[in-house]
Amino acid sequence: MTNDMSFECLLVSHDSGVYSAFDRLLRQLSVHLEVCLSPAKALAQLAKGSTDLVVVDWEGEDSSALLREIRNLVGCKQPTIIGISSSSCAVPGAHILLKKPVTMESGAKSLKSAYGKMLQDHRRHSRHALMLPVIATDKEGRTWPVTVTDIGEGGIGLSSSKEFLLGEALTFRLRLPEMHREIYIEARVLWGRDYARIGCEFIRIPPVDRNILHDWLDTKLRVKKPLTEL
């Protein structure tokens, strides 16, 4: 994302009409637009890992190769893809199909669907920094001091002098800042790195506690709001 936390869109098209429509629509949604005229330049931009939305004006093999390369990108987030086509046939690899000629109405409809997916993806992958000590319990009932370093919808980061095994389950209670009660978390170790950094996925959070986490994350979600209603 850009410094003002706007979503970023990459448009791959030679069509001035497509550019004109998307430039206007994306401005209304507070989405930053970059334009690439060739797949090679598009891939170089995507490799930076900051693109949230790709709009591809379908041009046969070149476009097909570009979408395959996007799916194969390693270490970069997978963007939402709108495929623009002159036919009603599906565009392989695209999440949303937009048929030519592109109008303000049809473009707005496709972007509404894309924006919802981008928000979901942003929520799922965002992590909010913390530095909170907790006591974790392993499956044998042993307890270990750990520090929660970040948290998001799908998982949590920990730091500990103890080396935990991949796949090991840990349970602990965590009081998020500004919250009045603790939440119960059961998590599984997915990876460990140097300096005792540990990444975990959630196994179970009780529904009430899940709602507390969801509401807290909502207050931390930093995305520039659209200028118009979706």
- Helical content stands at 25-40%
State the name of the first-level CATH class of the largest domain: Alpha Beta
Query: What structural category characterises the helix and strand content?
Result: alpha/beta
The CATH homologous superfamily name of the largest domain equals Response regulator
In the sheet with the most strands, the strands line up as 6-7-8-11-10-9
* Gap from first CA to last CA: 20 Å
Question: CATH topology of the largest domain, which one?
Answer: Rossmann fold
What share of residues are in beta strands?
25-35%
Helix run count: 5
What's the overall average pLDDT, rounded? 87
**Globular, elongated, flat, extended or rod-shaped: what is the shape?**
elongated
CATH architectural designation of the largest domain: 3-Layer(aba) Sandwich
Main beta sheet, described?
A: 6 strands, antiparallel
Number of domains: 2
Radius of gyration from CA coordinates:
21 Å
